[in-house]
Specification:
Helix content is about 55%, strand content about 15%. It is of the alpha+beta class.
Length: about 750
């Protein structure tokens, strides 16, 4: 691998790392954990004092105002001290709110008030626990940096590359196979295996043609986990690197990752980010690609780094390296649950082994194309985490530290947000429609306790999460998925063996735009209920006075916010066209375009895929559509010549299509694009940090547009549904008449 590229990768990760803690110095890390534990004890002590401190309403109002203003003053100071202060202040205000809710808002009321109020309180307690666990989990991101390998590559270990596949098209898997073959590692110490659970002849032929091993097994027992375990029995490498079949590794992957295993015998696994070069349904349908962080960036950008401090980095099923002996010691990849990856890491930690996380994108893959596919994937994750919670709860059993228990527990409890989220989306309707006081207190009291706590929680999380999650977007993601993960998570608690492994489809096309009415149905219903409640609220404004008037205002504001969240959720279900067979990544390199008569044009690459290139050509004026050309792509001291056809011309911009590439040319293309050592570094976490109000305004706009879209389309959908139902009834009657 080019040394300058490796240096760039190391410098990129070292910058943030140097301001925190040297992970290679174990004594320093231990000291930091002791200091942090002491700080947590101090926070807990002060929290207990302030939570139960008696204050009248005026004092509480002044206290909250001072805390909020101080937090807003320091929020832009980027340092661990600021982070600790904001977390402490947020815990104080949220704890006081919850203490007030439990001790002073259930003193009176009728059975309806108690019923709705208890449901809301349970949801609030859940949110509070997740908030606290999240603070502990991310309080000190480790920001581990790559470690150098031995100068003598004869000392480097042997590595088997596993690429499991089941039903994905060969075109999706080809780049991963070719990139794995290009990984910069001694040839005698690396071997690539395609684990084909589809047992397909075209895969076998392709593997033989390119020179990798094609492995199959007689059945598909335990899905992906069973596929990998079967391969472990017939391979011998000291380490196993696993890539999902659409996750394309860079040439530098092993050189960036493997240094940590040297001299660290307890280290069982290193995970790297799952980076996606295609937009997911949120980014595609809401037009937020690279403007708003991807849903998964919070986990891979921050949470895994926080886990790493507590020695609790999770195995995520792909883009990771595992030491074979330790993996076999825990029985291979876990098969008891459908989230085999996280469960495997939990087993390794229970055995006393360590894991690590390197936040350096060294592979990239395809995001789910459709909302239905995205929902299906999240259902599997939620079900699997609930299964682990039920069968191998991290609070129970031996082998885990306090930090590991918190990190695992938070990851599992996170997926129980379905019911709390639906409660938050419907709670204000209870007052607006039925007059139920879900919080039995004066409106001014509710505002005094609730608003400061919400501001502080948002401010602290915004400061901690930075570029990885914009404020309020988490609520959009949860609103879309809440209904669908509710049943499988609750059912998994009752019957943890229920539910099978579903493969997430990748590489599909969406030929025309459409609205997924089926997948959006539940939150359209909840949206209509909120709109109905809002109309009742308007009626209440004209019929209530005093404190009841203020209570109506608060519940209408809450309902209005829910309407915007649900409007954004509706808009996610409006599927955009996806006609490209080969999703494109971005690349900033200079190439040369040559005509058959050897005229040359300098050009800059804008984007690339296995199907073609987007170029900006200098002094373009003679190149025409359908013209056959050659593109000369550089890589270090080599140049690759690839035949292309001009598919589109727009000024100085050309869309080129690769023309009948040989296997060798496909290898060269992958080497010069997907497998470049630094190809994904500059596209990782590129969305800029946003102020909370700016992010809220963004959601207001999207939510308003979603509601307008729904109100325009809903009459037509209802009429079409009525006609369909009537037609079905008439057909049944006609059929019955014919029979009789």
């Amino acid at each position: 691998m080019n040394h300058s590229m490796l240096a760039k990768l190391r410098a990129r990760t070292a910058a943030a790392f140097d301001s925190l803690v040297s992970a290679s110095d174990n004594s320093s890390l231990i000291d930091d954990k002791r200091l942090l534990s002491l700080a947590l004890v101090l926070i807990a002590s002060v929290f207990v004092f302030y939570t139960s401190l008696e204050m009248d309403l005026g004092s509480q109002m002044v206290f909250s105002l001072i805390v909020v203003l101080f937090a807003l003053m320091i929020r832009r100071i980027s340092s661990p001290v600021t982070r600790m202060i904001l977390i402490f202040l947020s815990i104080v205000l949220s704890s006081r709110y919850l203490y007030w809710r439990i001790t002073e808002t259930f003193n009176e009321g009728n059975p309806i008030d108690y019923a709705f109020g208890f449901g809301l309180l349970v949801a609030e307690i859940y949110a509070f626990v997740i908030l606290i666990f999240g603070y502990i989990q991310t309080i000190w991101p480790l920001n581990r940096r790559p470690q150098p390998l031995s100068a003598d590559n004869r000392d480097w270990p042997t590595v088997d590359i596993f690429i499991p596949s089941y039903n994905e098209p060969l075109d999706v898997v080809k780049p991963t196979i070719l990139a794995a073959m290009a990984i910069d590692w001694p040839a005698e110490k690396i071997k690539v295996y395609v684990l084909d659970d589809g047992r397909r002849e075209d895969f076998r032929e392709y593997c033989e043609a390119v020179g990798v091993v094609h492995l199959t097994r007689p059945d598909n027992k335990h899905a992906k986990a069973g596929n990998i375990n079967a391969a472990l029995k017939v391979t011998q490498g000291e380490f196993v690197a696993i890539f999902d079949c659409d996750h394309i590794p860079t040439r530098s992957f092993l050189q960036v990752v493997m240094g940590w295993f040297s001299g660290y015998p307890k280290l069982a696994m290193i995970q790297t980010p799952h980076h996606f070069f295609s937009p997911d349904p949120f980014e595609k349908n809401l037009k937020t690609f690279k403007k708003v962080p991807n849903e998964g960036e919070l986990f891979y950008g921050l949470i895994q780094d926080g886990n790493d401090f507590w020695n609790a980095s999770f195995f995520c099923g792909s883009c990771a390296v595992i030491r074979r002996t330790q993996l076999l010691e825990v029985g291979g990849i876990a098969v008891e649950t459908v989230t085999e990856d996280a469960h495997t890491a939990l087993k390794l930690h229970r055995k006393g082994y360590d894991t690590a996380y390197l936040a350096v994108p060294q592979a990239a893959g395809l995001a789910t194309e459709s909302l239905s596919g995205h929902v299906g994937q999240r259902i599997r994750w939620a079900r699997g985490m609930a299964q682990i919670f039920r069968t191998d709860n991290p609070l129970l059993g031996k082998g885990l530290s306090f930090g590991q228990r918190v990190c695992y527990l938070n990851a599992m409890m996170h997926f129980f947000y379905g019911l709390p989220r639906i409660i938050f989306l419907t709670a204000p309707i209870a007052y607006l429609v039925f007059g139920a006081h879900v919080i039995h207190a004066a409106a001014i009291e509710i505002a005094t306790y609730a608003i400061p706590f919400l501001i502080l929680a948002n401010t602290a999380n915004s400061h901690i999460q930075g570029n990885y999650r914009h404020s309020f977007w988490n609520e959009v993601y949860e609103t879309v998925l809440a209904w669908y993960i509710l049943r499988p998570t609750l059912y998994a608690l009752i019957n943890p063996k229920a539910g099978g492994f579903n493969v997430t489809a990748k590489g599909g096309l969406i030929e025309k735009s459409y609205f997924d009415l089926k997948i959006s149905g539940p939150y359209i219903l909840i949206l209509l209920l909120n709109l109905f409640g809002f109309i009742f609220g308007v009626w209440r404004l004209f019929n209530e006075q005093g404190d009841e008037f203020l209570t109506a205002i608060i519940n209408m504001a809450w309902t209005g916010y829910n309407v915007l969240l649900l409007g954004a959720s509706v808009l996610v279900a409006r599927e955009s066209i996806q006609r490209r067979e080969h999703p494109r990544g971005q690349l900033d390199i200079n190439v040369s375009v040559q005509t058959p008569d050897e005229r040359a044009y300098s050009a800059k690459v804008l984007d690339f895929s296995m199907g073609g290139l987007g170029l900006e050509v200098e002094h373009q004026g003679r190149l025409q559509k359908e013209q056959s050309l050659f593109v000369v792509m550089p890589l270090n001291n080599r140049k690759f010549v690839l035949p292309v056809r001009v598919a589109s011309v727009s000024g100085n911009r050309l869309g080129l299509q690769f023309h009948q590439l040989s296997i060798e040319q496909e290898k060269n293309l992958v080497n010069a694009t997907f497998a470049r050592a630094d190809v994904w570094v500059d596209s990782w976490a590129v969305a800029s940090r946003k102020l909370s109000l700016s992010s809220l305004w963004n959601i207001v706009q999207i939510g308003a547009f979603g509601n307008i879209y729904l109100l325009r389309k809903l009459p037509g959908w209802l009429w079409a549904n009525i006609k369909f139902r009537v037609s079905s009834i008439l057909k049944v009657k006609e059929k019955n008449a014919e029979i009789s």
